[in-house]
Amino acid sequence: MNHKAQVWSLDAIIGVTIFTSAIILFYVYAVNFSDDAQVALTEMQNDGKFVSSNLLSEGSPRNWNLTHVEVPGISNRNRINQTKLDLLYLVNQDYNKTKRLLNTRFDYYFFFNQPLTANNTLLDGIGKPGLNRTTIISIENPRNIVKTQRYVIYQNEPAVLTLYLWEK
C-alpha cells in the first residue's frame, strides 16, 4: 500500500483552500475599500457645496461681526461684500474656529481667479495657513481632495470662487 499519494492529495486540498480563501478575501476587501472611498468622496463633495453656499451667503446673523458670528458669509445681493471678506480674513486667524463656523471637518482653502484683497492686503486666498493655491497638494499631500467652483461678482467683475476641501 502506498501512503505517499494520500498525503499529497491532502496537501493539495489544503493549498487550494488557502489560495481560494486569499482570493476571496482580496476581492471582499477591494470591493469594500472602493465603497469606503466613494462614501468619503460623496461626503466631501456635499461638504464642498455646503461650505461654498455658506461662504456665498450673507452669513448669520445677516450683519455678523467678529464678536457675533454663527456662519461667516461674504456676499450681499449676489456680490462679494468687501467688509465681510475682511472680517472673514480676521476670523480665519483662528483657522480651527473658522472650520467649526463653516461646519466642516475637512481642511479648506478658497481663492478667486483674480487678485484677492482683504484688510488692504493682497492675498492668494483664505483658508489653512501657510498654503496657497499651488502648494495645497505638495505641502499637504492629501489623501482625498475635492474642488468646488462657483461664479460670483467680485470687485464689480465676474469671478470664479474656487474652494478646495481635503483630508490627510
Question: Could you give the topology of this structure?
Answer:
Elements: H1 4-55, E1 75-76, E2 79-80, H2 82-91, H3 95-101, E3 107-112, E4 116-118, E5 121-123, E6 126-127, H4 136-140, E7 144-154, E8 157-167
Antiparallel strand pairs: 1-2, 3-6, 3-8, 4-5, 7-8
Which regions contain 5 or more consecutive residues with pLDDT less than 50?
none
Please estimate the helix content.
40-55%
Structural class: alpha+beta
- Number of continuous helical runs: 4
Question: What is the 3D form?
Answer: elongated
Largest sheet: 4 strands, antiparallel
Characterization of the model:
- The protein is an alpha+beta fold and 168 residues long.
- The chain has one domain.
- The chain is 44% helix and 24% strand.
- The protein has four helices and eight strands; from the N terminus they run αββααββββαββ.
- The protein has helices at 4-55, 82-91, 95-101, 136-140; strands at residues 75-76, 79-80, 107-112, 116-118, 121-123, 126-127, 144-154, 157-167.
- The protein has a four-stranded antiparallel sheet, with helices on one face. It has a two-stranded antiparallel sheet with strand order 1-2. It has a two-stranded antiparallel sheet with strand order 4-5.
- β4 (116-118) and β5 (121-123) form a beta hairpin.
- It is elongated, with a radius of gyration of 26 Å.
- The termini are far apart.
- The model has no long low-confidence stretch (mean pLDDT 88).
